[in-house]
Amino acid sequence: MKLPFPDWVLVTPVKVYQETQGENGISEELIFDGKCCYDDKTKQALDAERRLVTLAGKIILKGDIYPDDLISGYVMLGESKKTIYRTTRPRNPDGSVFSTELELI
Question: What's the domain of life for this entry (predicted)?
Answer without folding.
Answer: Bacteria
